[in-house]
Write a structure and sequence with these properties.
Largest sheet: 9 strands, mixed
CATH superfamily of the largest domain: QueA-like
Distance between the termini: 37 Å
Strand content: 25-35%
CATH topology of the largest domain: QueA-like
Order of helices and strands: EEEEEEEEEEHEHEEHEHEEHHE
CATH class of the largest domain: Alpha Beta
CATH architecture of the largest domain: 3-Layer(aba) Sandwich
Shape: globular
Radius of gyration: 21 Å
Number of helices: 6
Structural class: alpha/beta
């Protein structure tokens, strides 16, 4: 991470405070429900170099993608990981959120109410279709739980579980699939890579038909993505870790794109963090898997990414810091202020941004 070469001349990264990434957001702009048509979202285009802005509809992003470009998409799949049940001995209501499979049927979980969930406590879900026992208390008060069931766990979970929507969404989701991308493939996330929610199968087909390559990575999104930055200075923040995988095919597509001088455009901050974690110092990728806790903030030199499609993020979040590393803090905050004025929809079910290097349409 190149700390000395701080972008946009905004000072040293060591002096950046979390409060430097704050902005005012009226609560009514937080989208509570997804649009019926995924690609009908609004799109705020931002020139990453000048901060110039343009208003579009998401489906028209096709006009600003060029033959030879590569879209990098995260094909993780969200588990319906929120389970509502009861304690077997008292009948008291409990809520269990699956965080990470440890081994076999043992999962690390977040449990409410936590204080009463001591080792040995037995739980029941769906009238006994799924049962569980608390084994031990793990880090940060999480519980290790072993599940008992008949059949295939994923099928039982799909029938009983609910989508673990972010805390700022209070409406009940009517269709589980609307919190999945149309290309979701590998189970493992506690939250959706929401920039991808704007794509339909038809739009992706049209993008490919125009000569744009699609490259898929997998990064399983953890609940840490919603945890607020509590440190006063950003360099004091401890970044959460998430598991990722890049195939040889994906690495080859991205390497070829860079070699030919075309753009690598990440769909979402999770795709960005994946390829930036895995690339060597020359920006080359190989097939790889592992865990990443990469923290991207102003001053970071991007090794692979050229442009970014992403949603609007929480004030003072690590994701606003990541976008600011690409486009400059003032450019990003000015774009967000304009989005508020124009009443864009924010966060997971909201509208999108395209941080690009050109407003030139493909056929111009």
């Amino acid at each position: 991470m190149e700390m000395a070469d701080y972008k946009r001349g905004e000072g040293q990264a060591e002096g950046l405070r979390t409060a430097d990434f704050a902005f005012d957001l009226p609560g009514e702009l937080i989208a509570q429900d997804p649009l019926t048509d995924r690609s009908a979202s609004r799109l705020l285009m931002v020139d990453k170099n000048t901060g110039e802005r343009k208003h579009e509809v998401f489906k028209n992003i096709l006009d600003y993608l060029y033959p030879g470009d590569c879209l990098v998409l995260n094909n993780t799949k969200v588990l319906p990981a929120r389970l509502l049940g009861v304690k077997e001995d008292t009948g008291a209501a409990v809520e269990v959120l699956l965080l990470k499979r440890r081994l076999g049927d043992v999962w690390e979980t977040l449990v409410k109410p936590g204080k009463k969930m001591k080792p040995g406590a037995r739980l029941s879900f769906g009238g006994g279709l799924l049962k569980a026992e608390v084994l031990e208390v793990a880090e940060e008060g999480n519980r290790l739980i072993r599940f008992f069931y008949e059949g295939i766990f994923e099928e039982v979970l799909d029938s009983l579980g609910e989508m673990p929507l972010p805390p700022y969404i209070t409406h009940k989701l009517q269709d589980k699939n609307r919190y999945q991308t149309v290309y979701a493939k590998y189970d493992g996330s506690a939250a959706a890579p929401t920039a991808g929610l704007h794509f339909t199968e038809e739009l992706l087909a049209r993008i490919e038909a125009k000569g744009v390559k699609l490259a898929y990575v997998t990064l399983h999104v953890g609940l840490g993505t919603f945890r607020p930055v509590k440190a006063d200075y950003i360099l004091e923040h401890h970044m959460h870790s998430e598991a990722y995988q890049i195939t040889a095919q994906t690495a080859a597509i991205i390497n070829e794109t860079k070699k030919n001088g075309h753009r690598v455009i990440c769909v979402g901050t999770t795709s960005c963090r994946t390829i930036e974690s895995a690339a060597d110092e020359k920006g080359r990728l190989e097939a790889s898997c592992g865990d990443t806790d990469i923290f991207i903030y102003p001053g970071y030199r991007f090794k692979v990414l050229d442009c970014l499609i992403t949603n609007f993020h929480l004030p003072e979040s690590t994701l606003v810091m990541l976008v600011s590393a690409l486009a400059g803090r003032e450019n990003v905050l000015n774009a967000y202020r304009e989005a508020v004025e124009e009443k864009y929809r924010f966060f997971s079910f909201g509208d999108a941004c395209f941080f690009t290097d050109s407003f030139r349409k493909r056929d111009e």
